[in-house]
Design a protein that fits this description.
Shape: globular
Strand content: under 5%
Number of domains: 1
Number of helices: 14
Order of helices and strands: HHHHHHHHHHHHHH
Length: 298
């Protein structure tokens, strides 16, 4: 173990960690905005602005060559992300940030099988152990000392609509993140996500316009600055994670990205006044341990 600690940190860790921070800031922003802005309008604005920003940077840096698999990969991840985005907007509207976001820790577990099927990627034994530690932290967050059976946290997950919706998001993200790597490998970290976000923005714009005007419900002045800030954070997250994809396998990158859960739990407890701090922090620490195992031994 001491030898592992003396090893240099892999290059992919830094963009993955930066993506984790951006991901936590994004979900915090969404949690605050989804109470005042229609979810479809929120998706339309943030994805469109984020996509335009990424495409402008890509254009300035030089547009990449596009491989034949690019169109189907973009279409697949856009479809999956439309469903996932609607689900997590609804989850964040009805449940605590520090309970919803930890469910995304199951994405790396799902990825053990899904990344193998789509990309042929397989984590080593230590990497798999780290991934399971990350998921175990989410389980710990839902544990209550009054519950008599180990299956009780799963019953709680099923009984909470917001938490259950986020479990579905975790599965969808496992599939879409594997396809996202195909998008990156068939273009580059900027252009690929720029196209995906722009198409998501168009899709949510259509969905927003198709709804009744009464569904668009800003509670006060239109929060243009906040929406722009969330869009920029979303673009930074996408580029950072895509860059990490080019350097490591998807299950490892997503496991480290899920350190955003730890940050989100802190945001929920300190900034939103959410309860059960001790258990949620303990679960976050378990996830952090898993990420460290992946980074140093995976």
């Amino acid at each position: 173990m001491l030898a592992a600690l003396s090893m240099p940190i892999p290059l992919w860790i830094l963009p993955a960690l930066f993506g984790a921070l951006a991901n936590a800031l994004y979900f915090f922003g969404v949690k605050r905005l989804v109470r005042d802005v229609d979810p479809f309008l929120l998706g339309a604005v943030t994805y469109t602005a984020g996509g335009v920003l990424l495409l402008l940077v890509s254009w300035a840096a030089g547009l990449p060559a596009i491989a034949p698999d690019f169109p189907w990969a973009v279409a697949g991840t856009v479809a999956l992300n439309i469903v996932a985005t609607v689900l997590y907007y609804r989850a964040l509207a009805v449940a605590d940030l520090s309970l919803c976001i930890p469910m995304l820790a199951f994405t790396p577990v799902f990825l053990i099988a899904i990344a193998y099927v789509i990309l042929g990627e397989v984590p080593g034994p230590a990497g798999a152990a780290g991934i399971l530690l990350v998921a175990g932290g989410a389980y710990l967050m839902h544990w209550d000392e009054d519950w008599a059976t180990p299956l009780a946290p799963f019953a709680m997950i099923v009984s909470n609509p917001g938490v259950m919706a986020m479990a579905g998001v975790a599965l969808l993200f496992a599939v879409s993140s594997s396809i996202d790597k195909v998008v990156v490998l068939t273009s580059d970290p900027l252009f690929g996500s720029g196209m995906v976000f722009l198409l998501l923005g168009v899709a949510f714009s259509v969905l927003s316009l198709a709804r009744s005007p009464h569904a668009i419900r800003p509670a006060g002045p239109f929060p243009a600055a906040a929406l722009l800030a969330v869009s920029v954070v979303l673009a930074i997250e996408a580029f950072s994670i895509n860059l990490a994809y080019t350097l490591a396998i998807v299950p490892y990158v997503i496991s480290v990205k899920r350190l955003s859960i730890v940050i989100s739990v802190v945001f929920g407890i300190l900034l939103l006044g959410e309860g059960d701090a001790l258990r949620r922090i303990a679960g976050s620490a378990c996830m952090l341990a898993g990420a460290v195992v992946i980074a140093l031994l995976g």
